[in-house]
Amino acid sequence: MKILAIETSCDDTCAAVLEDTRILSNVVSSQTDLHKEWGGVVPDIAKRAHQARVMPVIETALKRAKTKIEEIDVIAVTKGPGLAIALSVGVNTAKELAIKYNKKLVGVNHVEGHLLSNLAKNKKGLPGREIAFPAMCLTVSGGHTKIVKVESLKSESLKVGFKYEVVGETLDDAAGEALDKAAKLLGLGYPGGPVIERVAQNGDIKFLDLPHPLADKKILDYSFSGLKTSFYYKIKDWPQEEVANHLADLAATFQNAVFETLIRKFKLAAERYQPKSLMASGGVLANAELRKRLRRMARELELPIYMPAKKILNTDNAGMIGIVGYFMALRKEWSDPETIDRDPRMNFN
Ligand code: KG4
Ligand code: ZN
After folding, report:
1. Residue 136: beta bridge partners?
2. Is the pLDDT of residue 156 over 80?
3. 179 lines ligand 1 (CB under 6 A)
């Protein structure tokens, strides 16, 4: 089955072409440069950039996959959650193409895309491994932080796909959002995660004493806003030179506090639910230190862990949307192109 996938939920304009779960092309046009000077994503700027870029990005994806739109079986588009006016651009483009070329259409949940990004295969069908289910999945990006138990439906009746149980999630900020906000406090710019990673490299992780949010062992949820507030109060009266002199230590301390919390709850969830494997995904997984800690955790639990090898599959991309679209198409969960609408607060589950 050939799938054209479109993703415009935030500030990346993305299109991909897949053959089942094999990604033939995965094109991302990042808008970071446009939003940088505002210190975060400006919805109206995102909308206009999506409008200008969506068709060229789709054409590039088709060209790189050596596929004509006539050969596409299904169009998959991110329906939500995300920025309403940004989502609209992708959804409207998908519906116009579906009507014009008479294609089947599926409306995909962005979070499910992040969750299933470890199922992606390259053109040659690699990696060839079979993921062991149930898997406990940590998905951690700028918009979401969730621990989800993912069960394969392979054995259940005729259904194909996955069953999800959210066992923990953030009650306020997402982990990536916390890193972005801390970077802003330190005057490091946007997006914060990658800069913090770079600056933190030689820093002292014990430089400040930061709280452990929701440390109670019974709770699998996250909370990052208190961490950010505490960080703010600790440094708010510092002279600028003092902050500048300890930039590496401050970045390392904050990053460490976020990652320690991420790992502690994820480990707790794995111990409680006894999955057969672990999966992790989302923009923050681009961080080498977090990946190292997750691998160490998996070794301690003696479980296999899957993380997308390519950075593009961690941050927002349309390849992951196409994977979800593939399973929805197998289940014939079609959307009507005449009535499909974006769903900015789309629930998961
Ligand atoms: O998945 P993504 O591209 O978009 C959302 O769905 O949110 O994730 C973006 C988030 C941002 O908060 C960004 O700061 C974070 O991922 N991020 C990183 C790194 N690269 C991106 N965080 C830590 N280390 C990185 N290297
Ligand atoms: Zn995302």
Report:
1. 149, 278
2. no
3. yes
